[in-house]
Amino acid sequence: MKELQGRGIISGQATGKALVTSQPLNLTSGLSKPWNLFNRLAAVYYDRHHELYKKDLYNRVLVFPQTIGSTFTGMVILETIRRGRAPLAMVVQQADTLLTSGLILAEVWLHKKVPLIEVPDPQLFNLIKTNDLVEVNGDTGAIRIIG
């Protein structure tokens, strides 16, 4: 079992399979496609230039470097959480205010949490691989890669 220590930004605990990309995510562009807008149960990433193209973010520990793109990112993640289709947790190299704002609003308005941990370590993507079982603790910033 491997362990990483990061900085907890949004508290809470989650355990699930990782979905990992070393490419930044544009959540506004990737999640605001017609399939997701009309199919209210979807959280499929539709950016055909991204390695997560057509991957479902639902019920995964999403590991990525940072968000890019629109100032609407917070509202997109808030809506994904409201629909009950959000990732279990997020691990990022660089947390930004746009992503964090959506997670905070979900906690305040919806009473739903998606733990967020920032790990600036460049080895992050060498340590966690897609489909690894990962346990995150947003209270302490601890991440355990179980297998």
Given helix and strand content, the structural type is alpha/beta
How many distinct domains?
1
**Global mean pLDDT:** 92
Helix content: 25-40%
CATH topology: Glucose Oxidase, domain 1
Going by CATH, the homologous superfamily would be Phosphohistidine domain
CATH class designation: Alpha Beta
Q: Spans of 5+ residues with little confidence (pLDDT < 50)?
A: none
Number of helices: 5
Which SSEs are present, and which pair or pack?
Elements lengths: L1 E4 L1 E4 L2 E8 L6 H5 L2 H5 L5 E2 L9 E2 L4 E4 L8 H10 L6 E4 L4 H14 L5 E3 L5 H4 L5 E5 L4 E4 L2
Parallel strand pairs: 3-6, 6-7, 7-8
Antiparallel strand pairs: 1-10, 2-8, 3-9, 4-5, 9-10
Helix pairs in contact: 3-4
